[in-house]
Design goal:
Blueprint lengths: L1 E5 L3 H14 L2 E5 L2 H10 L4 E5 L7 H10 L6 E6 L3 H10 L3 E5 L3 H15 L6 E4 L2 E4 L5 E3 L2 E2 L4 H12 L7 H8 L9 H14 L4 E4 L3 E4 L6
Parallel strand pairs: 1-2, 1-3, 3-4, 4-5
Antiparallel strand pairs: 6-7, 7-8, 8-9, 10-11
Helix pairs in contact: 2-3, 6-8
Length: 222
């Protein structure tokens, strides 16, 4: 899953990006409103962390433009603790959630998990397809209770497919959501990751839809 962090404080931006990457997200970073708006307008993100007080273009303006342009990705606003009016304006502008500064990184991670999960229509942190289980909080994958050890990219491919269970996901879409903008993307590697996943999982849950991409069975109701 791919997240954009737009925060002009370089240290805080780096802290958020590092924590997200350690949790398994692909992360792009922007440090002003214009750059952030451009990335959100041209790249596919599963969620955005957006500071309100940005140079060149403030966060609320960025958000309002995205929503007017039909961009629907979940947005978590970063607000000043004493500016309750920012929170109201942010929600009215189309924000999905907010967190006040200063905050604990763990709270941001939990809120991003919830936004991504809800956007995909899931109520629980555990995604399940038959005997296959993926815990979004711990990153643990099991089949019939047996832990399955995956590489970072294998996990990202499986997580994206499970978030979109029952739907056909193209190789291009997978590539866009498991690599950041600076990575030399090669959609052929997706086939390699899918092949490895099938072997490691040992169950037939990932279907190849000829000429279109891949589909994993619909997730179990939770």
């Amino acid at each position: 899953m791919r997240v954009l962090v737009i925060e002009d404080d370089k240290d805080l931006n780096a802290q958020l990006a590092d924590a997200l990457r350690e949790t398994g997200y692909v992360v792009d970073a922007a440090f002003d409103g214009q750059e952030g708006h451009f990335l959100g307008d041209t790249e596919p993100y599963d969620a955005v962390i957006l500071d309100i007080g940005l140079p060149q273009m403030d966060g609320l303006s960025v958000l309002e433009q995205w929503r007017r342009e039909g961009r629907t990705m979940p947005v978590l606003l970063l607000t000043a603790r004493d500016r309750w009016s920012d929170k109201v304006q942010g929600i009215d502008a189309g924000a999905d959630d907010y967190v006040a500064k200063p905050f604990h990184i763990e709270e941001v991670l939990a809120r991003i998990r919830a936004l991504v999960r809800r956007a995909a229509g899931h109520a629980s942190n555990e995604l399940a397809v038959g005997p296959l289980r993926l815990d979004l909080k711990s990153g643990r994958v099991t089949v019939d209770g047996r832990p399955v050890k995956l590489t970072a990219h294998e996990y990202k491919v499986l997580e994206y497919l499970m978030h979109h269970s029952g739907k056909v996901v193209s190789r291009t879409e997978l590539t866009e959501h498991v690599y950041d903008q600076d990575f030399d993307r090669d959609s052929n590697t997706i086939e390699v990751f899918v092949g490895r996943l099938r072997k490691k999982l040992g169950i037939d849950v990932i279907e190849t839809v000829r000429g279109m991409g891949y589909r994993i069975a619909a997730a179990d109701a939770s």
